[in-house]
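Let us work through a complete example step by step.
Step 1: write down the sequence.
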Amino acid sequence: MKQRSEVHEEIRPSHAASPRWHALPADEVRRYLSTDDTGLSEAEAARRLARFGPNEIPEKPPPGLFTLFLRQFRSPLIYILLVGVVISLLIREYVDAIVVGAAVLLKALIGLFQERQAESALRALRQLSAPRSRVLREGVERLIPSRELVPGDVVLLESGTRVPADLRLSATTSLLIDESLLTGESTAVAKHPAPTPDNTPLAERTSLAYAGTVVVSGRGRGYVVATGLNTELGAIATQMREAEDTATPLQQRVDHLARSLALVTLVAAVTTFAIGTVRGESAVEMLLVAVALAVAAVPEGLPVGLTITLAAGVRRMAQRNAIVRHLLAAETLGSTTVIGSDKTGTLTQNRMTVRGIWTVDQYITPDAANAPARSGAAVQPATAAYQTLLIGVLANEATIDLTPDGYRFTGDPTEAALLIAAHRLGLDPDALRQQYPSVAEVPFESERRFSASLRRTDEGYLLAVKGAPERLLPRCEGMLRDGAVAPLDIAAVQAALDEMARRGMRVLAMVYRTFAAPPADPASAVEAGGLIFAGLQGMIDPPRPGVREAIAGCHRAGIRVLMITGDHAATAAAIAQDLGIAEPGAPILTSTDLQQLSDDALRQQVRRVQVYARVTPQDKLRVVLALKGLGEVVAVTGDGVNDGPALRAADIGVAMGRSGTDVAREAADMVLADDNFVTIYEAVREGRTAFDNVRKVTLFLVATNAAEVTAVVTAIAIGWPLPLLPAQILWLNLATEGLQDVALAFEPAEGDVLARKPIRRNEPILSRLLWERVVIAGLIAAAGALAMFNWELDRSGSLTSARSVALTTLVVIEAVQVFNVRSLRHSAFRVSPLTNRFLLAATLGGVLLHILALYLPPTQYLLRLEPVSLDAWLRMGLVAAAIVVAMELHKRLRRNVS
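Step 2: predict the structure and record it as tokens.
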């Protein structure tokens, strides 16, 4: 006898190297695994456990608190500020160093607080594994920890259990398995031992049971063919582990802005240092000027302002049931150009529902009755419709209960849908089952494609049968019409079948036969024919309420919505047409189609195809990568294990919070707490508002810094004294305007936020139009500050007084400019100051704080300030008014430029 330790060499810890188990006969699989129907010996199982390792998905340790803290400093803008801190310390400007360092630390702490949740997708995958499994070892049934399963073990399955490893089934009895979390298909799959062709897609490999899926009903046994990372579930875990976290569009834009500011800082500092040295200034004095320029060029409040802006957007999204897990992802949804959505559980309810009951006499839509009938039966007895519903109740092993939250069921979802339809139309399933006691049952088998129930009646026996129409119609010799049996109108039935299939329904035929005495074999009685056709019941997984409107809103906002599902092409097409995702006759790509396309060919197809059906997790990932290769900003929604890799690869992954798996939630950037696709539409609004506010904060700060740099460089170039000291610039950037940029984070959405096209991935935070405003505002503010500096210096002869006037001029200009930036496209006078009371208070508070600084001895000493005259205040008002006029003219003249 062959020693079982000589396991076939191909069985190795490599998912890619595994044989095509579904295509091999069960006996060949048994020989291949060197096992038999009595199972392995304990000694052999121990040897295999040592060789293959435990049946578990290794956990990836989450990043520590310190690692998360260090991540907050990964930004060129932060690097510039840290260099400024070092230089300030070297020249002993400790106040400057402390203030800038505090700004950097505040930004890091806010980011750390928002991103504290560890990446735990792999731990969630591990939790999906069944904790204990029933196996045969040496012919004895044992209950062992699932982690001890090895290839070759014989595992026993029963209703309600989770499959603990990938199994090649060797025997089944009415086995139905829910694979929706792996394949995306909402209907439970009938399993049997017969092999399937080698090229069969994963969702149709009926001879395999996959780790993590759930047994809905029936029993089965099978050989373990893969454990741990070698399972299909493990392959997804490996893909998620290997997937790289991509930079969000905002990260890319901030990095680009930071590099631009770094270049400006370097050029300005070197140029000014060279000019001063040529003019004979001391190196120490010019180093102080260079530090002043560095401080002026870098908007110290920008990292904090951006972080708070995004945090405010995150909070608004949370109020709309969209929980953002990563701070920078807050604006990404607002920049999204494509949403690739799973169908089952995302666009639909993941609940099979009878949507049509056809008889030759009438057509009924149970969904129209959204509550059970209250008085009498909605369907009258002695009609074909009543008999159709009655058969659906009797040839049925599911049960339902009506709760305050709706129907709750046990058993197969398809059979539960038949019970719910009958109950909604006035029938009482429990009472009918008592009225017609069961004599014998014929469970559904994939080979038969029908199930039946023999029931006792007052007149004799009723054989109620439901199943595939193409299987049962040839065995019918008549049909119910007007309460009596009439000849079968096969043309009418086929026309109804075609129409229901076109609408994406899964259709079951309801037929029956009566007997005076019970048949010896009810299954053979069905095969013998002589059946009476009652009607058809068509089921579909219905769309979620409000999804159709949300998709239309996405289209108006310039966002393509794609359906990427593991379900059948016909069903996907029907749902896509119903929801407005695709037009009738639009092309559909299946997994088979995708496998035949190269990456370049796929990139061409994704430009026009809206619906992808029967896809595997790898297919979904390829579609996402192809879209990103075209420069699209891609959001992917999903709720199953199968969605994990695509969620991580997308620019933003959106998972379902209620029905979604832990894997999907932990892999995603955003979680919908209410599982409602409509929430995505609202999150788009908040994402775009967040990006608008990021732009407003950046425009406000950069324009102010441009004025400071221009004033300092110009003064040095023309031989004037330094108009602003480093500490004064820091005071301006952090104390007075610091509150205003934070308040801008809470700006409400502009009215046209969802009427615009998405922001292009390569579009910077400050567009060309906004840079024009930076230049205009910077030049006017710098000219005004220098004019006031020179006027006061000539009038008083005091350099301290002149610097105080120059600084105060910029404070007043900031107070006016912050209201100019509140509307990026329209006049500032169209926006009420009361719509952002925080900004109004922050602006008034900043001015009052500066006035106090002009008079309080401590701040006079630290900042080298002194009070300014009333005449100076009036002149500052004129300079500020000039900026308002310039900005209004620019908006009007350039209003058609995006």
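Step 3: interpret the result. Confidence is low (pLDDT under 50) at residues 1-17, 117-130, 368-377.
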